[in-house]
Design a protein that fits this description.
The chain has 180 residues and is an alpha+beta fold. Helix content is 45%, strand content 12%.
Length: 180
């Protein structure tokens, strides 16, 4: 009978732990739905906001952007987005650890954010790509290989080819509408 009472008490504790864990995850979900991160360029011209999923929810461009090169604007927009997503990852990691601790499910959430939003390359403000898988070492060559030849235009690219004489069909449709 003692074993039965111990099993019932253990089952009751297990159910309470599950209920508390569920409440902590509901609290985490509520906190994460309100998370957003904004990053602004160094000159203050461009600002990007991302939500808890890392999706861009707002872009603010100052009037000074009008004179900028479109490529520079696009580059800075992407850099702001990547920086905001990296800060989002750090913020979500803190939320998960503060709310649910370091259990397996919490670490899975942190891992997903780490995979989706990697660290930034400090030299270019773009995500650092994951390292490539290790490949077997290639044998050393005594001489460096020659660089590839630069691409050239196709020969006769500027030459225009046209029929020398119009065909009977060309002459027939030359003065008629296609609606007839």
């Amino acid at each position: 009978m003692d074993d039965l009472n111990n099993a019932a008490a253990e089952l009751s504790r297990w159910a309470e732990d599950l209920e508390q864990k569920a409440q902590r995850y509901q609290e985490l979900h509520a906190k994460m739905t309100s998370v957003s991160v904004t990053d602004t360029s160094a000159d203050g011209r461009i600002s990007v906001t991302v939500d808890a999923n890392g999706s861009t929810t707002a872009i603010t461009l100052a009037a000074a952007v009008r004179g900028m090169d479109p490529t520079a604007v696009a580059t800075e927009l992407m850099a702001c987005t990547h920086r905001a997503q990296a800060r989002l990852r750090d913020q979500v990691t803190g939320l998960v650890h503060d709310t649910v601790g370091t259990d397996e499910a919490g670490e899975a959430i942190v891992g997903q954010y780490s995979d989706r939003f990697p660290d930034l390359d400090p030299t270019s403000s773009s995500p650092v790509p994951p390292p490539p898988p290790a490949a077997p070492a290639a044998p050393a060559t005594p001489w460096p290989s020659e660089p590839d030849a630069p691409a050239t235009r196709k020969p006769d690219r500027d030459r225009v080819v046209a029929p020398e004489e119009p065909t009977d069909e060309d002459l027939f449709y030359q003065r008629k509408s296609w609606l007839q």
